[in-house]
Amino acid sequence: MQRVLVVGISGAGKSTLARELGRLLALPYHEMDELHFSGPGWAVSPSYVADLARIGEGDRWILDSHGPEAARELLWRRADTVVWLDQPRRTVMRRVLVRSLRRSLLRERLFGGNRERWREWLHADHPVWWAWSQYGARRAEIGGLAGDARFAPLRVVRLRSPKAAGAWLRAQRPAGRPPVT
Asked: Percentage helix, strand, coil, to 5, in the chain?
C-alpha cells in the first residue's frame, strides 16, 4: 500500500483511520477538509483540485475521502488501495452527532479557522443532516466506483463495523512497530 484512499460517509471514521494508517505505514497523510477549506466562512481553497491532482500524481500518499468529482477519476486511477468504511447508519450517526456536538459546544477551531456553529445545524449541508440524507447515495456511489473496471486492479478493503476496522488496522502494523491502540 503506497497510495490509499480511505472512503465512507461523514462520521464513518475516515480521518482517524487514515491518520493512523499513515503513521503505521509512514505514508504522508492529507486531510481532505484541510485542503478544501482555506479560510473564514468555509471558503474553498482556489487551489483545491490542483493540490489534489499534485498529491494524486505522487508515489506515496493517503487521503481521507474519495475526492471531489473534479479530481475523483485521477485519485481512483492512481490509488492502489481503497479502504471503504462501510459502517452501519447507527454507528455513523452516533459518531457525527457526538463530533458535531463537541465541536459546537467547545467552539473547536477547524479547517481554515472555521468553527461549527449552532445555527449551521439548521442547514441541509451540516454534517449531521448531510450524513443522514446522503447515507444510501454515498454507499451506492462508492460501491459503483469500487466495482468500476476503469480502476482495476485496485484493491478494495470493505470494513463494515468499527470492530472490523480496528482489527484490520492492527493487522497493518509492520513488524517491529508498536501496536495500535
From this structure: 55, 15, 30
pLDDT digits (tens, 9 = 90+) for 79-125: 999 999 999 999 999 999 999 999 999 999 888 888 888 888 888 88
- Any domain includes 176: no
Q: Is residue 179 one of the residues assigned to a domain? A: no
Is 180 within a domain?
no
Strands lying side by side in the sheet with 3-7: 29-30, 61-63, 3-7, 81-85, 155-159
Where residue 75 sits, what CATH number does that domain have?
3.40.50.300
Around Cβ 38, how many Cβ atoms within 10 Å? Answer: 18
pLDDT digits (tens, 9 = 90+) for 42-59: 888 999 999 999 999 999
Tell me, rounded to whole angstroms, the distance of Cα 114 from its chain centroid: 19
Q: For residue 22, what are the domain limits?
A: 3-171
- Give the global pTM: 0.91
What sign for the dihedral angle of Cα 162, 163, 165, 166? positive
